[in-house]
């Protein structure tokens, strides 16, 4: 989504689904844009076992990027193409309630809780606002910020935020766009694509290091969406926008995760 021409092609493909009768909800993060903004602000991120610790100062910049830059850009493109989009975060209408994430580090010697700062998880979702927008033919474009019950603000992993929302909405299809065709048995071999995967197989593939890196939260979010009410979950290649169009034709594409 850092390539503006590709971004417009991806969004155009998503809009063809709406014209075929689908109600669309878009959820996004903004990793590359956040990295650049924090670098420009000379804020150095601390990482704990690969998890970014987010300070209050960093969160201010993250919110500006997610809401002002990334969300605003997607909304502008959709509206410019003749559809109607509304930009949101979980804070709007308080429709997503967060809770602080405490990272549990477990080693052979001990188990300890580590504070990641303003990093949260989804606690509750009230879907009324999203349903209201969908009923009036708006496309909600949602970024992954929310507050807890005391008003503290948190940044939430976009994949996990999306999976939680997909489950709460009990969607027909939960689709994750990434930059590969789906999960591969060998990450370097495009021909080793795993077309279908059951939730029960996930742990084994994690142990075998088949599911690793950025694919871990994507697979986990699919499992969460399915467990909470989504009917189907797929990971497809967003660099190939035609794959989005294939979804309405029931063609085999990407990796499908099932219960």
Helical proportion?
A: 25-40%
Number of domains: 2
Q: What is the highest CATH level, the class of the largest domain? A: Alpha Beta
CATH architecture of the largest domain: 3-Layer(aba) Sandwich
Low-pLDDT stretches: none
The ordered H/E elements are HEHEEHEEEHEEEHEEHHEHE
- Tell me how many strands there are: 13
CATH homology group of the largest domain: Acetylglutamate kinase-like
What structural category arises from helix and sheet content?
alpha/beta
Count of discrete alpha- or pi-helical segments spanning 4 or more residues: 8
Range of strand content: 25-35%
How much is the radius of gyration in Å? Answer: 18 Å
Q: Could you characterize the architecture of this molecule?
A:
The structure is a single chain. This protein folds into 2 domains: 1-169, Acetylglutamate kinase-like (Carbamate kinase, 3-Layer(aba) Sandwich), CATH 3.40.1160; 170-259, Carbamate kinase, CATH 3.40.1160.10. With 259 residues, the chain is an alpha/beta fold. The chain has a 4-stranded mixed β-sheet with strand order 5-6-9-8, covered by helices on one side. Helix 2 (31-40) crosses helix 3 (56-80) and helix 5 packs parallel to helix 7 (215-227). The chain has helices at 4-19, 31-40, 56-80, 128-135, 158-169, 202-207, 215-227, 242-246; strands at residues 26-28, 46-48, 51-53, 85-89, 96-106, 111-125, 139-143, 145-147, 153-156, 174-178, 196-198, 233-237, 255-258. The longest helix has 25 residues, at 56-80. It contains 8 helices and 13 strands.
